[in-house]
Design a protein that fits this description.
Blueprint: H1 9-12, H2 16-41, E1 48-52, H3 58-66, E2 71-76, H4 79-89, E3 97-101, E4 114-120, H5 129-139, E5 140-150, E6 158-160, H6 166-179, H7 190-196, E7 200-210, H8 211-214, H9 216-222, H10 226-233, H11 239-254, E8 259-270
Parallel strand pairs: 1-2, 1-4, 2-3, 4-5
Antiparallel strand pairs: 5-8, 6-8, 7-8
The protein binds S-adenosylmethionine.
Length: 271
């Protein structure tokens, strides 16, 4: 089985290890706000939870740590990441956690199994997100809740002082992901995708991380140069533009009143 769509860790960025660290940083950046919404949508200690497209496993790890009576199944299509989750991230939760090699498109899991499902930064990379949502609904118990979290690269990192060239970076990123079958502006469509996937009682939130509250370092860990470097290598972004962004970014970080802002889009639905 191999990942289809616009996210393969071995090709999306210039270094697999740095990309795993970036994914970890991206979980840390939003977690405090994100988990409050998971609870508001219905997550409870003691639930059976499934995460689809779990990558290195940092979201499942946070859920297992914060909710000590939950049991979790993490499904991941890339064997490298499933092994990473087994060996590093989730190894200390042995009896409460299972990591399965598999696709969100056909998990092979039984009908009506889980109380709560998380699919984070996965739908935006899939050619057929609605079918993925239907599969998540199938494995939820009646009355269970699924949350889907994605980006919308129309509005990604914003800074003060402003870096206008970031827009060129995000346009290049979108072009590259779309060429591989992804939908990098899916955030705004999430409620409709959930409705088409058969969910009811749909809710939608936009959450943001701000450097005045979290510090610049959290953003530096969750961004990095790996994906932009790959965009240059693949011909989507001129190297001159990346150099301009790097220069402007350094100046922005040094500015006394600098701000960095980023948002994520969350939709939840009930079966
Ligand atoms: C951007 S990463 C997000 C990882 C994790 N959910 C997180 O938030 O840190 C996207 C993940 O989805 C996985 N993925 C892509 N297509 C998949 C599929 N069809 N089934 C399961 N996982 C898939 C990728 O291998 C990768 O681990």
């Amino acid at each position: 089985m191999s990942a289809e769509g616009s996210y393969q860790i071995s090709t999306v960025a210039s270094s697999v290890q740095h990309e795993i660290q970036r994914l970890q940083g991206q979980v840390a950046l939003f977690w405090e706000k994100e988990v409050k919404h998971y609870v508001e949508f219905g997550l409870r200690d003691g639930h059976s939870v499934v995460e689809l497209g779990a990558g290195p496993g940092y979201v499942t790890e946070n859920i297992l740590r914060q909710f000590p009576h939950t049991r979790a199944v993490a499904v991941e299509i890339d064997p490298l990441l499933a092994d990473y989750a087994r060996e590093h991230t989730l190894s200390s939760f042995g009896d409460r956690c299972e990591i399965l090699d598999g696709s969100i498109m056909a998990t092979g899991l039984p009908d009506d199994t889980f109380d709560f499902a998380v699919t984070r930064l996965v739908l935006e990379h899939l050619p057929d997100p609605v079918s993925a949502v239907r599969e998540v609904k199938r494995i939820l118990k009646p009355g269970g809740t699924a949350v889907f979290v994605d980006n919308d690269f129309e509005m990604h990192i914003m800074t003060y002082p402003s870096i206008p060239e970031l827009r060129l970076l995000y346009e290049a990123y979108c072009e590259s992901r779309i060429a591989e079958g992804g939908s990098p502006r899916l955030g705004r469509q999430l409620p409709s995708v959930l409705r088409q996937g058969g969910f009811a009682e749909i809710d939608f939130e936009v959450i943001c991380a701000h450097s005045d509250l979290l510090g610049d370092e959290m953003f530096l860990k969750s961004e990095g140069i790996g994906i932009p470097t790959k965009l240059v290598k693949d011909g989507f972004l001129p190297s001159k533009t990346l150099a301009q962004i790097a220069y402007a970014w350094r100046n922005m970080i040094r500015h006394e009143q600098n701000s960095i802002l980023r948002q994520l889009y969350l939709a939840a639905g009930r079966k």
